[in-house]
Amino acid sequence: MSEHVILTEIVGRVGVIRVNRPEALNALNLAILHAVVEAAEAFQNDPNIMAIVITGNEKAFAAGADIKEMADKSYIEMHQSDWFSGWSRFTEIRLPMIAAVNGYALGGGCELAMMTDMIIAGPGTKFGQPEINLGVIPGMGGSQRLTRAIGKSKAMDMVLTGRMMDGEEAERAGLVARLVDDNNVFDTAMEIAQTIASKSRPVVMAAKEAVNTAFETSLSQGLLVERRAFHALFALEDQKEGMEAFSNKRKAEFKDR
Ligand code: CO8
C-alpha cells in the first residue's frame, strides 16, 4: 500500500497534487478526499501559489471512487454521512485548477477532473461514467457537469451505457481543453499553470469566478456580475500596471494587489 495517498510539491508558483494509490488505480477513498481537499486549501492559503495542477500516474488519473470502501454500506450510512459531500470543498477553491489526465478517468475520477477548471489529456486517456455497470449512477457530479460539458445526448450515451471515451473524442466533445501527446500531458498542464502564474492573483481569481458564474445564473445576471467585477478591478494597482505596461510597450509586472 502507498504510504502517502497523495504527493504534493510546489514548482515556482504552482502547487502540484498527485494522487498516489497506484495499486488500486488511484481509486478515490475518504483518505484521498481529505488529503486532496486539505492540500488544495493549504495551497490557496499560501499567497505565493497561483494555480494548482492535479494529476495521477500514466495508468490512471483515478479509476473511480473506491468500490470496495462503499460496497457494503447501507442507504442510511451513505445518507447520514452524506458520503463524499466533502468534495464540494474542492470545488470552492478560488485558484485555477488544472487536471493533467492520463490513463483511466472513470466514475469519480472523471468527476474529479471535471471539478477542476480545465482538463489536459492525451489520446490514450479513457474517460467514462461506468457506475451503471455497478448498479448505481454518478454521484460526484457526473450527471450534471458532464452534461454541461458535452451536452445531453452524449452525456446520456456515456452515463447510460457506461462506455469509455478516449482523449480525442473527449476533446472534440468539449470536455478536454487541450489534447497533447500522452507523455506530454503533465508538462503541458504545468506550462499552462506557469502562464497563469505570471498574471495577477486577484485578477485570475476574478476571472475564474466570472466564468463559473455562467453555470449558476441567467445570462443577464451573469453579464452584470462580470461587468461589476470588471469595474471593481480598477481598484487594483495591477490594473494600472497592466494598462500602463501596454502603453509603454513593456511586459507587465504584477504585484497581486
Ligand atoms: N475501486 C476500488 N478498487 C479499484 C477500482 C475502484 N474504482 N478500480 C480499480 N481498482 C483496483 C482493482 O480492484 C485491482 O485491485 P486488486 O489488484 O487488489 O484486485 C487494481 O485496482 C487493478 O485493477 P484491475 O486489475 O481491474 O485493472 P485492469 O487494468 O484489469 O482494469 C479498469 C482497469 C477497467 C479501470 C478496472 O479496474 C475497472 O473497471 N475499475 C472500476 C471502474 C469503475 O467502475 N469506476 C466507477 C466507480 S464508482 C464511482 O466512481 C462513483 C463516484 C461517485 C461517488 C460519490 C457518492 C456520493
UniProtKB/TrEMBL annotation:
Originating organism: Enteractinococcus helveticum
Molecular-function GO terms, alphabetical: enoyl-CoA hydratase activity
GO biological process: fatty acid beta-oxidation
Family indicated by similarity: Belongs to the enoyl-CoA hydratase/isomerase family.
Protein name per the record: Probable enoyl-CoA hydratase echA8
UniProt key word Lipid metabolism: yes
Domain of life: Bacteria
One Pfam family, short name: ECH_1
